[in-house]
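User: Structure please.
Assistant: Input sequence and predicted structure:
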Amino acid sequence: MSYLYLALSISLELIGTSLLKASEGFTKLFPTIGVIIAFISCFFFLSLSLKTIPLNTAYAIWSGIGIVATVIISVSIWKEKINLASIVGITLILVGVIILNLFGPGHNESSSGDKTTESSVGISDSTNN
């Protein structure tokens, strides 16, 4: 279910970003209202996904897919230009997201919740002294 929340968050981020362009610097009322609703909803669903997906993995997926999809939207809908440097940069982002998902933290850990709790307790104890 967490990955469904993450996908919904990404979709809402793409809608919000597209409406940000359409709002023309927040000078158009309805796109501006759409931006606010889309981004609040986006971060709400991102926060739900973070209940089980590690932050670094979720954010890498969220931002990586968001960047790639935003470029596709900007080229196809807004008719913006793209160059070779942009394509290389986007490719590097995708490779980074794939590497993080295959080998990053959260993999091969038996109980990440226990480790988080221990770290939290350690931080709490040191701040109370």
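The radius of gyration is 18 Å.
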